[in-house]
Amino acid sequence: MTRVGYDVRFDTCNSWSEIMEISEKERRIILTSNPALIKSKAVTHAILLPSTAPEIQLQWIMDRLETQPRETCRSS
User: Fold this and answer.
1) Which domain does 47 fall in, by range?
2) pTM of the model
3) Which helix (H) or strand (E) holds 57?
4) 2 occurs within a structural domain
């Protein structure tokens, strides 16, 4: 997938508890297609995505937040 200039942390090795801990510590919004994850009282900010396909997720998020991809810095 093309980089679009947003600060995203993604690691498939993280457990649910690690995801919630990182979200709280780093003040991140959890993006997930798993409704069970956002039902926890430990989750303060989350967006439930309607798909598991990354391209569809990205477009859905940009549409809902009314934003567009930002320019990214590229090293020469």
Assistant:
1) 17-64
2) 0.69
3) helix 54-64
4) no
